[in-house]
Design brief:
By secondary structure, the chain is mostly beta strands. The protein has 8 helices and 37 strands. The strands form 10 sheets. A 4-stranded antiparallel beta sheet has the order 2-3-4-5, with no helix packed on it. It starts with a helix and ends with a strand.
């Protein structure tokens, strides 16, 4: 099935830019982007006739207005945004820059922060090389380390998206790799992606595949699984489960509804996969034994389909028939951790201890020791560990930042275990007993707001995504939007300039004029200042 035709316009709109809750109040589903804007305008005109600040909070009005600001000027006379518009704009930008003599133009240099990282959604260790590690961030792009995380290099700063949701290698040729873009975990500040990208040079350069989109469509890729034995690439994403037999040039949709959050190939198998879905008419766990062509739902031992919301899967080479299935309930708490010992034919409940608080819709991980199927790690707000197959858990890793999103066992060394959270990347060299930060040099913090000191021009405060309040940093952010020193206003809405940056969707930016130095800006993942 052609990707561009397989996903409805309505579905893409309702998850775009965090307006899902408000759009759900519409009596009729929109038929196009323009129809969506008109219906939402009418909805808010009735709900908030005076737009008083006291009445706006909690209504979704501000996220919607950011979405409208981003989309409306780009529609022109069209009813919908062209699927590849952002990618084509980025390609055109590269052409323009190549034709310019940029030697005399102002330059930018990074100010960090270099000692604290942002939300990490994916970690992959290169097969055959434990020192080479890739980490993907919610709005910080893809980074690579060649010294086991002691230092990092950005690989995707100039791509049309910096939201990296998953990474996958061809283990037989690790220079070939895919990454899924977009952060689709339900948070209002999520940055959506441009589909699945492919690299043949270990991530140095990237190209489109047959699964492409623009961020305003709200497409998010949650997991990729490549079968070296057959050359099949499976994609778990919004709206369905997809299969490619030509490295991603084309895709067939093998499951046609719901949000597919995870897919794993059975260890040692060449044809058996496990996957999970919610937001469909039949939520839960699925199994394929024909290389992803057809799927059968497992219900034995699992809760009713309508109770299952966000969930993740974990397997282990120690016993390929053992599967752990972690499930959140509708309120974001834990519904349960279930275990199968017969290759997914049936499950039994192991724990209902709540590791997620009320955030299981957002932060939920599960991992199993590759050499001991009874050793299990469950990530939610904190990280938890079980040595008895999930019967009981204890909280561990107090030095690891809260809100867990990613896990990775080193395929070359079973003692090395990586986790990713809202605070970046952490590494264990003793099979998950203790962890150390590997965040030096990762310039991936998400900045929500920024203010500059009028007394000390070297001091700036910014609000960030790491749940621990305000911190200080030097300088300004990633957007070249100079204004004359005699500008009349002290504050300006800088969104129009910020939104033109080809590498990052900026939803909300506030600029403050620095006397004699033009304007500073606050948005994106990197502090930069113009020379």
């Amino acid at each position: 099935m052609n990707f561009a035709l397989s996903r409805s316009v309505v579905g893409m709109l309702l998850c775009a830019c965090g307006v899902t809750v408000a759009s759900a109040q519409l009596a009729e589903k929109p038929t196009s982007t323009r129809d969506f804007l008109q219906k939402m305008d009418a909805y808010y005109a009735q709900l908030l006739p005076d737009h008083a600040p006291a009445t706006i909070s909690g209504t979704g009005f501000k996220p919607y207005m950011r979405y409208k600001w981003l989309v409306e000027p780009r529609l022109g006379d069209l009813d919908d945004l062209p699927p590849l518009a952002r990618w084509h704009a980025w390609e055109r930008l590269k052409e323009i820059e190549a034709d310019q003599n940029r030697g005399g133009l102002p330059t930018w240099f990074s100010l960090g922060a270099t000692n604290a990282a942002g939300r990490c959604l994916a970690i992959e260790v290169r097969p055959g090389d434990s020192n080479t590690v890739y980490a993907g961030f919610a709005s910080g792009g893809l980074w690579r380390s060649t010294d086991a995380g002691l230092s990092w290099t950005p690989l995707t700063d100039f791509l049309p998206t910096l939201a990296i949701g998953c990474i996958e290698f061809d283990e037989s040729d690790p220079d070939r790799m895919w990454m899924g873009t977009g952060e689709g975990w339900g948070n209002l500040d999520a940055v959506h992606g441009v589909g699945v990208l492919f690299s043949s040079d270990a991530g140095v350069t990237w190209q489109q595949t047959g699964m492409s989109a623009i961020p305003a469509q709200g497409l998010d890729i949650y997991e990729l699984e490549y079968n070296e034995a057959t050359g099949v690439l499976m994609v778990a994403r919004d709206g369905g489960l997809y299969r490619s037999t030509d490295d991603g040039a084309t895709f067939d949709e093998v499951m046609t509804e719901g949000t597919w959050k995870d897919i794993e190939i059975k260890p040692g198998s060449t044809d058996t996969y496990y996957a999970n879905v919610h937001g469909s008419s039949a939520n839960g766990f699925y199994k394929s034994t024909d290389d992803g062509l057809t799927w059968t739902q497992t219900t034995t031992g699992l809760p009713a389909s309508n109770l299952i919301f966000n969930s993740r899967i974990a397997t282990t080479p120690d016993d390929p028939n053992v599967i752990y299935y972690a499930i959140a309930n509708s309120g974001g708490g834990m519904l349960g951790i279930y275990r199968s010992t017969d290759g997914g034919e049936s499950f039994s409940l192991r724990s209902t201890q709540n590791h997620y608080g009320n955030q299981g819709w957002y932060d939920l991980t599960i991992a199993v020791d590759p050499e001991d199927s009874d050793r299990v790690w469950s990530g939610g707000v904190q990280l938890w560990f079980s040595s008895n197959g999930g019967s009981s858990f204890s909280q561990i890793a107090g030095n690891v930042h809260v809100d867990h999103h990613a896990t990775e066992w080193d395929p070359n060394n079973p003692d090395i275990f990586w986790v990713g959270s809202d605070g970046g990347v952490y590494r264990s060299t003793n099979s998950g007993s203790t962890f150390s930060s590997r965040n030096d040099g990762l310039v991936t913090l998400q900045f929500y707001a920024m203010n500059h000191s009028w007394i000390d021009l070297n001091r700036a405060e910014h609000e960030r995504d790491r749940d621990d309040g305000l911190s200080e940093a030097l300088g300004a952010l990633f957007v070249a939007c100079e204004a004359p020193d005699d500008a009349a206003d002290d504050e300006h809405d800088g969104g129009q300039d910020a939104g033109r940056h080809a590498g990052q969707v900026v939803e909300q930016v506030l600029h403050r004029r620095i006397p004699g130095q033009g304007y500073a800006a606050g948005a994106g993942h990197d502090l930069q200042r113009k020379q």
